[in-house]
Amino acid sequence: MQQVPNLFLIGPMGAGKSTIGRLLASELSREFLDSDHVIEARCGADIPWIFDVEGEAGFRQREMHMIDELTRREDVVLATGGGAVLREENRRALRERGTVVYLFTTVEQQLRRTARDRSRPLLQCDNREQVLNAMYARRDPLYRATADLIVRTDRRGPRSVVNDILRRVRRLADPLQHSDTRAAP
Ligand SMILES: Nc1ncnc2c1ncn2[C@@H]1O[C@H](COP(=O)(O)OP(=O)(O)OP(=O)(O)O)[C@@H](O)[C@H]1O
Ligand SMILES: O=C(O)C1=C[C@@H](O)[C@@H](O)[C@H](O)C1
Ligand SMILES: [Mg+2]
């Protein structure tokens, strides 16, 4: 069987990129990278602080350099930030250097999963639903245009999402071996 390529997870805040990514990497005995966390570690500061001091533009610049660096690694599972697809450079790096999985979820689920969160500066407002709907309208077409696979993550647990991704990624890597249909004799 062909080896599973780099796996890059994209999708909105609360889709489960960090949660699913960690589980997926452990199933594949691979290194797990989370671009948000690596940016924070390199900066010695958390994302809200970076947004406060450098603005969203400063964060996006750091994110672009990080995606370029991390997508050049081999045999990794990489969880990207929810806004990574906004830049064309990021979309290209992701598409060219691995298999891209869009973790889809609904705004309703996002609201639930990010309800008490203080680490996402773009959601520290009173009109979270409106903000998330606007992000969905802008970003969903970009996630779709970048992804090799789209996997629903609403109304199912992380373990089921991971099994689904593994099955579909293996089929993509080796369609003959993992075909669901049998060739006629
Ligand atoms: N499939 C799932 N079912 C139930 N809860 C989930 C699922 N995936 C993630 N969660 C929960 O939702 C919350 C947000 O998940 P997570 O931090 O992995 O999202 P994310 O996509 O990495 O978000 P961000 O883009 O902001 O980094 C966590 O509390 C996590 O436990
Ligand atoms: O959706 C977004 O724009 C963001 C998502 C998070 O992963 C972080 O990258 C940051 O909070 C911005
Ligand atoms: Mg995350």
Automatic annotation (TrEMBL):
E.C. designation(s): 2.7.1.71
Protein location: Cytoplasm
Cofactor (UniProt): Mg(2+)
Binding site for substrate: D36, R60, G82, R139
Domain of life: Bacteria
Binding sites annotated in the UniProt record for ATP: G14, A15, G16, K17, S18, T19, R120, R156
Alphabetically ordered keywords of this record: Amino-acid biosynthesis, Aromatic amino acid biosynthesis, ATP-binding, Cytoplasm, Kinase, Magnesium, Metal-binding, Nucleotide-binding, Transferase
Name of the protein in its database record: Shikimate kinase
Species this protein is from: Halomonas cibimaris
Top-level taxonomy: Bacteria, Pseudomonadati, Pseudomonadota, Gammaproteobacteria, Oceanospirillales
